[in-house]
Model the fold of this input.
Amino acid sequence: MKLERLMKEQGMDAILITNMLNIRYFTGFTGTTGTALAIGDKRYFITDFRYVSQGKNEVEKNGFELVCENISTLKKVGELLKENKVKKLGIENQSVTLDQFDLFKNNFENIEYLNLNDLFTKEREIKNEFEIKTIEESIKIAEKALEITIPKIKIGVKERDIAAELEYQMRKLGASKPSFDIIVASNERSALPHGVASEKLIEEGFLTIDYGCFYNGYASDITRTFYMGETPEDKHLEIYEIVKTANEMAIKAVKPGVSTSELDAIARNYITEKGYGEYFGHGLGHGIGLQIHEYPGVSFKAENKILKEGMVITIEPGIYISNFGGVRIEDDVLVTKDSYKVLTNLNKKFIKL
Ligand SMILES: [Mn+2]
Done:
């Protein structure tokens, strides 16, 4: 099991998990309050009265024993650590707050704390079959929702109304919520890479929609750019085609062994060759999973990583020109055994609405 291997590798007797996403990942628990503790081959999940029946079903499948503790979870953890003579405890230094750490110190005796650093996030960057299936479901919901919403996207409609409609449709199709604040950015606002839907009415020009949902805990992340109106300028067509080609070139290069910086460079060099390099200021993509942004970063700014089978990343090049508009096209791509699988299926042609 993963936790046992991590403890061995890091010289820890036990690992305390307090971050709810990591708890979900390791124990299967989907509620909002709980603490997981792994000591050698023992697995405990401590939660309160509210989550006993739900928690039991979820965590026992994954080998965790549910412990109900209504007064003080950390006291209970302290007892378990003492009982099992734990000396070296791994903690999630990236998500433990100073307040939490003070509580640990007050409740646990004679413990040496070791940092897990980004070990958990690194574990999570490779998706198993269940996770891949769930991400695919999440994408399907998002895509269906956009298809239902498209007839409502018209010049004169408020950006925010389109975002609300998309969210409503995603929820109706089974999503728990959007995976981030939905971006609906019309015309000049489409030049804002993160133009969250505003009160503005959709006008002629580009319309960028960047959105996704959480389904069963897992995120989807998709961007499509449409042209609103009948008469795009040549420049609209030109930059759309450049971004689309950059997106396709990068996707085709995805396979195990390729580095994330090489991938970023493929799209970036092409856009630069076409004269728009300075208008593509962000990274090419990122991993998705329980979080909307996960390892690996696929960017000239992020740590360079080698792609491995099971990673799910976004490929989202863009060109943003102030006072004119912007285009971004984003797909979610799985790294397979020897190449890639594009998980998103929405059309990428230049579409006039
Ligand atoms: Mn994205």
Q: What stands out?
A: Residues 129-149 form the longest helix (21 residues). The mean pLDDT is 95. The first strand starts at residue 14 and ends at 17.
